[in-house]
Amino acid sequence: MSGKTMYKNPPIIERVIGVYTDIKIQPEVFEAKMPEWIAKIQDHYPISKPIAEWTLNIKEVKGVPMLQGVMPKAEIIQMFWKLHRNKQQVHGMRLRPDRLVFHVCREGDIIHDFDEIYVEMERWIGKWMEHFEVKALKGVTAEYFNRLNGAITPQFMLPDGGIKIAEALVMFANIPGKYTTVTPPYDNKIRLIVDAKRPCCFDLRVMADDEVRSSLKIDFIVSTCGQEKAISAKDALDEIQIAHDVILEQFDCFFTKQAKESFVPYGIPDPKPSK
Amino acid sequence: MEFLTPNRPSSPPEFNAPRYAYVGQPLKADKQPAHLTEFEFAHKVIPLEGGQQCLRLLKSLRLNINEAMEFEVQDWGIKMDCLQLPELPRELARRFMFLLSAAENEQLTEKDQADWVKISDYIDFRQFSVDRSPPRYQEGFLQTNKEKFIVVWHDGTRESLPPKAARALGDINAGERFSAHVKLGKNDETIGLERVSLLGATSEPAMEDWSAWPTKS
């Protein structure tokens, strides 16, 4: 527990934490060792659902996106899930030659908790490093994905499907100029350097959700990855805790007081009748 | 204290959430660029038998995508829907095993034979043969187990075992004879030992006792 304000009903839909190798595991080594790893995690993550990833190499040249000469790649990303009573994908493990990542996804009103994925990382990081012969790590990431929409935050919805965005997010509270309303497209990104030495960066992205009408994505991402960095598993676990604390702090800063009250901080009675 | 800084201490790693491409406008082009229809398959190790063995590729596979969003694996005669990409390693393994079996039994059709010739260029057959060969029964004498595990095999060859293989001799004392099933690597070096038995006699084998045995190579 970090001592930061915790909420009963935050708009979070997924938490992701990852650790990154300082030197990428040779793809052939990674693939050759994967079947044995699958056997090791079988009892805990029995459902294998690999993801297809098609990558184009695009580089920005004088503001114009240009396709690179390198051939586009098709890759299979290893993804494993724990069993779930309703066959949902809630607790996941993702592996690539340069990282180990854990996911925990919201299921309805159950928002889950940071501790659930932290414990998983604690349990597996050492085994993963030993199995894939990872000597050191270059840092960690924590990614928290939030949504403002009718299903998750009805308190901000207007009858016509609009979202009271200025009531939720500080950064939309004082947009200058003369206008009646804000409308998509909008895509805001900002990076804050929290600690240049470690390093530790915080990224905020607010954008319209193309998949769902009247839905806003709010992503909080903290990264501590550095080029010359080589840390141990224990250091990485400490950094995950730091990254989590940074996200809690920034959550406090970027959401309005009114929004935070509606998310119901622990210690304050829930204004909504419990289901 | 807000200010913009050009410093970028680190680039964030790739985003781990699911991503979606949104195409709001149709692309303006007379033809689809060829390099967008051809992808390189990033994986060069194809698991066989549930990962107990692997098929190592010497060069990358090319996936050619058509307008129906299907891809064809160049030279392999495999066609699949793009959404089924995660199933490709299994299909590659099946295609390879089918052709290998047909080739061994001389049952290749004309088309299969043409495919087999092309596919053969992709496969590291030497490694495949090593991986597939069963362990061989051998007897030896553990000369030392101090800093290194050094074994004198039945044919008189001395070998320093790699740590992974040496672990299997943990119960053998220096100076004891043993038998084991030995898995050999690409250069006939020992890469694994199993079914180790203690043969007892604590004496270095006299070379003449072993003269009737076949050599390792």
Helix content of chain B: 10-25%
Largest sheet composition of chain A? 10 strands, antiparallel
Structural class of chain A: alpha+beta
Kindly report the oligomeric state of this protein.
heterodimer
Describe the protein.
The complex is a heterodimer of chains A (275) and B (217). Chain A has 275 residues and is of the alpha+beta class. Chain A is built from five helices and twelve strands. In chain A, the strands form two sheets. In chain A, strands 1, 2, 3, 6, 7, 8, 9, 10, 11 and 12 form a ten-stranded antiparallel sheet that branches. A two-stranded antiparallel ribbon of chain A has the order 4-5. In chain A, strand 7 and strand 8 form a beta hairpin. The longest helix of chain A has 22 residues. Chain B is an alpha+beta fold and 217 residues long. Chain B is built from four helices and eleven strands, in the order ββββββαααβββαββ. Chain B has a five-stranded antiparallel sheet. In chain B, strand 5 and strand 6 form a beta hairpin. The interface between A and B is large, with 48 and 38 residues. Strand 6 of chain A pairs parallel with strand 1 of chain B, so a sheet runs across the interface.
List the helices and strands and how they pair.
The complex is a heterodimer of chains A (275) and B (217).
Chain A: E1 12-21, H1 27-41, E2 47-48, E3 51-55, E4 58-61, E5 64-67, E6 73-81, E7 91-96, E8 99-105, H2 114-131, E9 137-149, H3 165-168, E10 187-195, E11 200-208, E12 215-223, H4 233-254, H5 257-262
Antiparallel strand pairs in A: 1-8, 1-9, 2-6, 3-6, 4-5, 6-7, 7-8, 9-12, 10-11, 11-12
Chain B: E1 38-41, E2 45-48, E3 53-56, E4 61-65, E5 70-73, E6 78-81, H1 88-104, H2 110-120, H3 125-132, E7 136-144, E8 150-153, E9 158-160, H4 163-166, E10 177-184, E11 190-198
Antiparallel strand pairs in B: 1-4, 2-3, 4-5, 5-6, 7-8, 7-10, 8-9, 10-11
Give me a quick take on this structure.
The complex is a heterodimer of chains A (275) and B (217). With 275 residues, chain A is of the alpha+beta class.
